Every structure is written in structure tokens, then in C-alpha cells.
Amino acid sequence: MSALGEGFAALAEEAERLRAELRDLRVATRPDRAALRDEVERAFPLEGPVPLRRLVGEAARILRVHAVHVVHPRYFGLYNPSVREASVLGDALAALYNPQLAVWAHAPGAAELEQHALRRLASALGRDGDAAHFTSGGSEANLTAVLCALAHLAPGWEAGGVRALRARPAIYASREAHHSLMKVARMTGLGGEALREVPVDARLALCVPALEARLAGDRAAGFSPMAVVGTAGTTSAGVVDPLPALAELSARQGVWFHVDAAYGGAAALVPRLRGTLTGIERADSVTFDAHKGLSVPMGAGMFFCRHPEALRRAFAVTATYMPSADAAEPYTSTVEWSRRTIGLKVLFALAESGLAGAGALFDEQCRMGDLLRDRLRRAGYTLVNDTPLPVVCFRHPDLAAGRLTAAALCARVVGRGRAWISEVILDGRLEALRACITSHLTREADLDLLLEELEAARTA
Predict the structure, then answer these.
(1) How far apart are CA 262 and CA 142, in angstroms?
(2) Do 60 and 99 reside in the same domain of the chain?
(3) For the whole model, what pTM was predicted?
(4) Are residues 55 and 197 in the same domain?
(5) How buried is 3 (Cβ within 10 angstroms: 0-12 exposed, 13-18 middle, 19+ buried)?
(6) Residue 325: is its pLDDT beyond 80?
């Protein structure tokens, strides 16, 4: 067997071993940074060649021992899922051929494989005909949305930048929206004050009357409302904003309507949940991360836009070393220039199970979320968020009475290594515990173990 074959054989063995032993691993470890650095230097001295099989073994050992295992079925944390093996194969194949996606003619096969996946997912979102491309993640997709809004609504911005604008552009999102929007406001030169925070209602969803009042007040104060962002699956509580009302308000106000469905977009593949996303079909642009609800490796963000001309105004450039800047060339309509093939791992995951099968996997996670809510209620906890998505925020009477903090309880659970949860502050005021079903491998026994760990941590 060739050296490459030996390396891939070792990788396949590690994949099989990880799946077989995953539930027996500690979900999280806390190594000493200096000791870990010494360990890495000893494992990879870089003084001479090392066989690929040994390289795979050493790296796998370090990754296995020193990690918060987000692929673990008892990782109830942020939106980092267990990954589908089919998507790992697609990612490896993309690395093997290394197609360059700046120009269609350099990698027509890879480009069309990606576009096929994007077209099918756009259709599931009710957005046939959108311009779409893969991104590094939701942050890049949200940045793209704001740049497109500027190009679409602010003539002269492409050449003169924000100094050419007659009024201060403003972006509106709920206080529970993703904080990438603050980075976007800074990166685009609009500044942090351009991001206008809107209060949430009792459901922790963006409050539409408060948004209307803020828009009116800002116009009077000299701001120029440019974009409204609705979130489909907030990071803290998994809440879906009132998308139909936001679409209607944005149309009346003449502002760009963007939906950040980085997590919640997967609901489009679940028949019983599809109505949760009603209104997303009216958005000017949409963010959707395959590396969240579709269980593929990071990063695999997606951006969908019904204004291809805005993409071109925002990103089109000419260079003598590139083909003419026509609409077919990816580098003329994206943030990136050279770009790795991201979409093959997404296509593999979708093709292995079919779109219905991919939806069924996410639906099962939602069912686990419902079961967890039921178990928590019966154990005396109070639920403090309202969403059909599998994000469960909860409090125990001990927290309300001040006998225990969420931070202390989380630290005890995580420190025992059998499960991983997080603390969260909702609406800037309510301290709670957060458990999200992120893995398609999570079963009822894993929920029971989490309840055991919560009780052990609470009574420690």
C-alpha cells in the first residue's frame, strides 16, 4: 500500500474507532496550556519526515484527549453538531482535488456540484431563482447581506464609501440577534452605533411595535434605516422572530429585509416545522449554515439573495489576470476571491439520505428537545423560552432563590465530564441554563443522564 493509502487507512480506522467509543469519552477536558504545548512539540518535532500513519495517530490522540467534543451525543451546547460521515468523505474529496472556485472555467464540476445543492436548499426555503453561494459561515453571510443592502439602497456607495451617503445608515435587529452583526457594522465602516438594538417581547422575539417606534425615532434623528434583520433561531434561546410581520414592515419602510436563519433554516426540511419559517420567502437575503442544522463539518455557510445585481455592485472588480467580469464568475459576486470547495460535503450529506432524510434527522433532534422539556418539568425545573427548535432554556427554584448560580451549576456539570451545557442571560436580565440538542446521535438515555448530572451538580 502506498504512503497515501496507509494514511487514509489510518484515518478510516480512527473514524470507526471514534464512532464506537464516542459515548465513553469525556465530553470536555481542561488541559494545562503549557503542558499541552509541550506535548504537541514532542509529538511533532518537525526535524525529519514522519510516516503518514503515525501522523494521523499522533494528531488523533491529541484531538481525542484535549477537546470539548462537540460531536458527542451529550454535548448540549452551541450549534456545533455531530457530523455525518458522508460529509467527511465529501470534504476529503474536495481537499484531494483542491478545485479553485474563483472562476467557473477552472472548476466547472465543483461549481455545478455546489450550485445543485444550493438550488435544492433554496427551493426548500421557498426561494427558487435566488443567487446563492457558499460562505465560510454565518458571519460572512451576514456581512454579505449588509454590503448588498448598501449597494442596493445607497447609490454612490461603491465608489465613495460611507462618506458618500447623505444620512447615517442604520441596521435593526433584536437584542437577542447574533453578535456577528456588531462586527459587520464595524467592518463595513458604519460603526457600532449603526446597529440599532430592538427590544424583545415576552417570547424573546423581536418586538414589532418597538421596531416601528425605533424606525420613526431614528428617521427623525437623522438616521437612514437601511436593513431589518429577523432571526430564525436565536443563539441564546432558539427563538424565531415574527418573519411575516417583519417582511411587511420592511416593504412599507423601503428597507432591506435579511433573515439570519443560520440555525433555524434546517426547519425548512421538516414538514411539521416548515410553517415556522413563513415569511422567509419574502426576504431580500437569507443566511443558512449547513454546519449547524444539517450536521456537516465547519464551515459551511450559505447566502441566498433575490437581487443578483446587488451582489455584483458590491463585489464586481476587473483584473487583467482574470477572465472578464461577467455574471458567471464567482469572484465577482462574493467576499472571497480564491475559495475552497465548501459545498461538496453538503451535497454528500444531502445525497446520502435525501432531503427528506436530512429533515428527519433534524426532526429527531427536535423530538429529543421536546422530551428534554418534559423531563425537566417533571424534575421541578421551569422552562423560560418558547421555540419548536431543540434549544431548551430552564431554571431551577434554587436559582430563583439565590441558593445557586447558573455559572456554578454549569461548571459542576462540565467538570464531571459526562455532559456539557451552558449558562445564558436572556434579554439581558434572566439567568438560565441552556441545553441544545445538537447531535443526531442523541438518544433518550442521554437525556436521562443529563438529568442525573444536573441533580448531582445541584446537590453537590
Answers:
(1) 9
(2) no
(3) 0.95
(4) no
(5) exposed
(6) no
